[in-house]
């Protein structure tokens, strides 16, 4: 598995453990101590950045939801969206298509039956709005 792909998967698990399990970041990383250092470094970068920008990221997600409240979001979907939006906005040199693709794959693997389509739709809307802001 690609180190960044594995890093995203680890970051998702850590964010989930921190948000829902109320674990500390170091404790949430403990189960992954034998993973590749490259994957762990990337995961840590994503986790720290997502947590530092959480309120801004959550506001962006809320603005994209139609006929659905943020509080009702599936916990896995919410963490995947947070992670992907942070990465799109802050990690230089990453291909947005790969970020979205891997977010959708994580949603299919860890979410419910509709998570893949839901995550894809929200992230595509986010990218469309972001591109409009950049070009205007």
From TrEMBL:
<comment type="similarity">
    <text>Belongs to the NusB family.</text>
</comment>
<protein>
    <recommendedName>
        <fullName>Transcription antitermination protein NusB</fullName>
    </recommendedName>
</protein>
<keyword id="KW-0804">Transcription</keyword>
<feature type="domain" description="NusB/RsmB/TIM44">
    <location>
        <begin position="6"/>
        <end position="128"/>
    </location>
</feature>
<dbReference type="GO" id="GO:0005829">
    <property type="term" value="C:cytosol"/>
</dbReference>
<keyword id="KW-0694">RNA-binding</keyword>
<dbReference type="GO" id="GO:0031564">
    <property type="term" value="P:transcription antitermination"/>
</dbReference>
<dbReference type="InterPro" id="IPR011605">
    <property type="entry name" value="NusB_fam"/>
</dbReference>
<dbReference type="GO" id="GO:0006353">
    <property type="term" value="P:DNA-templated transcription termination"/>
</dbReference>
<dbReference type="InterPro" id="IPR035926">
    <property type="entry name" value="NusB-like_sf"/>
</dbReference>
<keyword id="KW-0889">Transcription antitermination</keyword>
<keyword id="KW-0805">Transcription regulation</keyword>
<dbReference type="GO" id="GO:0003723">
    <property type="term" value="F:RNA binding"/>
</dbReference>
<dbReference type="InterPro" id="IPR006027">
    <property type="entry name" value="NusB_RsmB_TIM44"/>
</dbReference>
<comment type="function">
    <text>Involved in transcription antitermination. Required for transcription of ribosomal RNA (rRNA) genes. Binds specifically to the boxA antiterminator sequence of the ribosomal RNA (rrn) operons.</text>
</comment>
<dbReference type="Pfam" id="PF01029">
    <property type="entry name" value="NusB"/>
</dbReference>
């Amino acid at each position: 598995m690609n180190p960044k792909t594995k890093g995203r998967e680890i970051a998702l698990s850590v964010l989930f453990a921190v948000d829902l399990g109320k674990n500390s970041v170091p404790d949430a990383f403990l189960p992954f101590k034998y993973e590749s250092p490259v994957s762990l470094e990337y995961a840590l970068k994503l986790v720290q950045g997502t947590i530092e920008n959480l309120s801004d990221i959550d506001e962006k997600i809320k603005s994209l939801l139609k006929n659905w409240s943020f509080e009702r979001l599936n916990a896995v979907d919410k963490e995947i969206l947070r992670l992907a939006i942070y990465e799109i906005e802050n990690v230089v040199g990453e291909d947005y298509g790969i970020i979205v693709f891997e977010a959708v794959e994580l949603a299919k693997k860890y979410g419910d039956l509709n998570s893949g389509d839901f995550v894809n739709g929200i992230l595509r809307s986010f990218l469309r709005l972001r591109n409009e802001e950049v070009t205007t």
